[in-house]
Amino acid sequence: MTVPLWNWYPQPLFADMFLTLYVLSAETHAQRIIGGQEVQKYSIKYQASVQTEKGEHYCGGTLVHEQWVVSAAHCWRPQYMKVVLSEHDLDETEGYEQVFNVSKLYIFPLYTYWNYNNDIMLIKLSEPAQLNANVQPVTLPDKNARPLRGDVCTVSGWGTTQQRWREWAPINN
Ligand SMILES: *[C@@H]1O[C@H](CO)[C@@H](O)[C@H](O)[C@H]1NC(C)=O
């Protein structure tokens, strides 16, 4: 899951960032996004895919700095995790992928797994990403920016474009 909503400055100020994310990530659970569409390849340059050792995508992330990705705390796994940038079709190696190991993980201290409050995790990549036409950190607002209210936001990630299984059926909450 990534919720890229902001303008950003390259040096992460973690206190500010957590605060911003904390506010924005409330109430985002237990709802599905219906009606998304495939993006133009590599147009969401900060989009990261968090994957298992076998390369199975299981969570999204947002590149916020050349070596840091924000994801959700519930995406932490005791097993091997890797991060892929410049990814589009998960079933194909398209040649632009940048694959990283994880060198550090920070789970937001106020994360509570039983209700997903403060569901935020910071991932440090094993090395800085190569910033190029496909890979750029998201821009976040400066700390004095007015709060969002009635703004149009972009939400991006991998999902299914067709409903095939019962468990993917839309849910109301
Ligand atoms: C990730 O770590 C494994 C060993 O744990 C190593 O074989 C592999 O080359 C590393 N990959 C990257 C992209 O650093």
* CATH architecture classification of the domain at 39-136: Beta Barrel
The fraction of residues assigned to DSSP E strands is 15-25%
- The overall pLDDT average reads 81
- Biggest pleated-sheet summary: 6 strands, antiparallel, barrel
Order of H and E elements: HEEEEEE
Shape: globular
Helicity, in percent? under 10%
Report what the structure shows.
One of its GO terms (biological process) is proteolysis. It is an enzyme of class 3 (hydrolase). Its EC number is 3.4.21.4. Pfam families: Trypsin. The longest helix has 12 residues, at 14-25. It contains 1 helix and 6 strands, in the order H-E-E-E-E-E-E. It is globular and about 40 Å long. Strands 1-2-3-6-5-4 form a 6-stranded antiparallel β-barrel. It has one helix spanning 14-25; strands spanning 47-51, 57-65, 68-71, 82-85, 98-107, 121-125. 26% of the residues are buried.
How would you summarize what this structure contains?
The chain has 173 residues and is mostly beta strands. It has one helix at 14-25, and strands spanning 47-51, 57-65, 68-71, 82-85, 98-107, 121-125.
Keyword list:
single chain; 173 residues; mainly beta; Thrombin, subunit H; six-stranded antiparallel barrel; 1 helix; 6 strands; globular; disordered C terminus; binds 2-acetamido-2-deoxy-beta-D-glucopyranose
Topology of helices and strands:
Layout: H1 14-25, E1 47-51, E2 57-65, E3 68-71, E4 82-85, E5 98-107, E6 121-125
This protein binds 2-acetamido-2-deoxy-beta-D-glucopyranose (NAG).
InterPro entries: Peptidase_S1_PA, Peptidase_S1_PA_chymotrypsin, Peptidase_S1A, Serine_Proteases_S1, Trypsin_dom, TRYPSIN_HIS
Organism: Kryptolebias marmoratus (Mangrove killifish)
Keywords: Disulfide bond, Hydrolase, Protease, Serine protease, Signal
